Amino acid sequence: MVTIARYLNVTLIVPELDKTSFWSDPSEFQDIFDVDHFIMSLRDEVRILKELPPRLKRRVEIGMVYSMPPISWSDISYYHNQILPLIKKYKVVHLNKTDTRLANNGQPLEIQKLRCRVNFSALRFTSQIEELGKRVVKLLRQNGPFIVLHLRYEMDMLAFSGCTQGCNSEEVEELTRMRYAYPWWKEKIINSDLKRKDGFCPLTPEETALILRALDIDNSYQIYIAAGEIYGGQRRMATLAAAYPKLVRKETLLEPSDLGFFQNHSSQMAALDYLVSLESDIFIPTYDGNMAKVVEGHRRFLGFKQTILLERRLLVDLIDQYNSGTLSWYEFSDAVNESHENRKGQPTQRLVIPDRPKEEDYFYANPEECLQPSYSRLDLPVGGL
């Protein structure tokens, strides 16, 4: 939206966060991000206001505002041809869905570079979140290197995706009820087994434990779990905890009083995990959601810090073969390592798929126009950790 406002030469109002689709988090943009820094750092590019001027605010209050979702993956020219005339006509246009509204590829270089400037410089968390993030990283560093595991195995994720691998019948029913409870989640009847085989499910904690072992990640490493409450709790985490006893979370590293302010503010908790994820020696997401993609791109920007990008479709097939006895442990481990040799966040060209942008590499996961290929990778070798 910053980039679009700059291109159209219009004023941007500080964004509002969605509080209606699923999240019950009451956080506002300014509760998560340093708004003054956001506005000041972009002042030479675009005019940003904290709120509408009184005259325009009154227009909005009486319903004189045009609200619409822009078309996903649009070229920047779409905004000049379709959105700018609406702004001239209505003075205020409320764009009510703003994720993935600009195409990954084919945009002018200055547009791409501005997107990076916003992501990696203008957007800075509040001082309270930043300071707590530094404390968590310091506590982890005192005990040596650490891996951040972005374990997307929360109840809402499973209900939305329909992925129920390892869940009992009561849990399957509970997840199904939740999916039907949200009318804007359009997919209701889901074949979990088929979706898993196609690579569209987050790895389970049990599957993740197998993959970490196959990648030769030493069990003396600290593994920081960046996630909300894991569905199934300790029962589902038992295998991973047995394989990697140094599992930690923000809740185990900090006192309850440290996190009291963040309770019931899931976006602020996620911001804390984001900061720790950036600083980790290795970042491993078990699902390629928005946060995982942005962390991946940010770590590339910081010097291609190692991020292991799991090929889930291949991995679940290998896991099933190993569990059935078709593959020995050594065959399984060799296959996992070989298939991920070039999936560690090293410099690579973004995958472009004309007419299928959702299947492309997302710009913010690999903003190659903004990266310095001459950087050496700031990583640790996987073998023998």
UniProtKB/TrEMBL annotation:
GO BP: any one term: fucose metabolic process
Compartments (UniProt record): Membrane
Superkingdom, natural source: Eukaryota
Cellular-component GO terms for this entry: cytoplasm; membrane
Keywords, alphabetical: Carbohydrate metabolism, Fucose metabolism, Glycoprotein, Glycosyltransferase, Membrane, Signal-anchor, Transferase, Transmembrane, Transmembrane helix
Chief localization: membrane
Membrane topology: Single-pass type II membrane protein
A molecular function (GO) term: glycosyltransferase activity
Keyword Glycoprotein included in the entry's annotation: yes
Family annotation (InterPro entries): FucosylTrfase_pln, GDP-Fuc_O-FucTrfase
Pathway: Glycan metabolism
Stated family: Belongs to the glycosyltransferase GT106 family.
Protein name: O-fucosyltransferase family protein
Taxon lineage: Eukaryota, Viridiplantae, Streptophyta, Embryophyta, Tracheophyta
